[in-house]
Amino acid sequence: MKPRIAIVVLTYNGIADTLACLASLYRLEYPSARYEVVVVDNGSRDGTPAQVRSAFPQAIVIENGANLGFAAGNNVGLRYAQAQGYDYALLLNNDTEVAPDLLERLVATAEADPTIAAVGPIIYYHDAPQRVWSAGGSIDWRRGICRMAGETEDHGQYPARVVDFITGCAMLIRVAALGKVGLLDERFFMYFEETEWCVRAKRAGYSCYFTPAAKVWHKIPLNARFDREYLAYYMTRNRLLFLRATRANWRTWLDALVLQDLRTYLSLWLRPKWRTRKGRIGMGLGWFDFWRGRFGPAPGVVMGR
């Protein structure tokens, strides 16, 4: 009998994307009695819960009532999967659409090796269906840099393999591994939480695996730039939190703080061609909040409130 899967779709507004995502999930070739779609809503203001219940009454809808962030919101879904005795939980962004054989491919990979804690698919840009956004992630521990393979056309150059991390955009997790690895670290709020979880999984004796046979399309802009204030804030603060949580050595810290962050920060203020870019305030506040131990959601000044 096929393993039971809970597909956790975290939502925060974006109802049109959510409905398209759910429509693709209900076209999956996996036996319908063996998977359940669980929509976890983080306090959407566009009527997401009601519209999902109307369009897809078979879906489970859990309302958090507030924006708990990516980590805490997905943990609600993971706890549900644990409580209901599911074998796997698929974390999936609401702005994705999936291939009909996605679950078959992911589950087959996980079932082939009980030491695999998580499996990730190849993820393409929705607006450029053959251009790869993510094909598994690697960590440069010397410099403390986390990178995803991708940003090229798919010519079959990305093999199935063990990877350092899988993006939480589409990540199949073995529920039994949660007992040993734990849930996502909610201090991150958003960004780096899945990477830190994958490091914990590896140190607990598991591996994370990428398979290009499973396919997802992500509605992220082709020219997406991480220069908004809140993105600069989270990427700065959470990268430092990641280094602390994974116990990076002093050489990695030196490279991250001086050769990378300080140089970037000074360039944002001093180089004429970069002065118009956003992110300076967010980056500075990210540093400040990390050192004073302030985690969770970004401050209002960064979010523009």
Automatic annotation (TrEMBL):
InterPro entries: Glyco_trans_2-like, Nucleotide-diphossugar_trans. Coiled coil: none annotated. It comes from the Bacteria. The keyword Cytoplasm does not apply. Signal peptide: none annotated. The keyword Glycosyltransferase applies. Transmembrane segments: none annotated. Pathway: Cell wall biogenesis; cell wall polysaccharide biosynthesis. Keywords: Glycosyltransferase, Transferase. One of its GO terms (molecular function) is glycosyltransferase activity. Residues 7-180 form the Glycosyltransferase 2-like domain. It holds the Pfam family Glycos_transf_2. Belongs to the glycosyltransferase 2 family. This is Glycosyl transferase. The lineage of its organism: Bacteria, Bacillati, Chloroflexota, Chloroflexia, Chloroflexales.
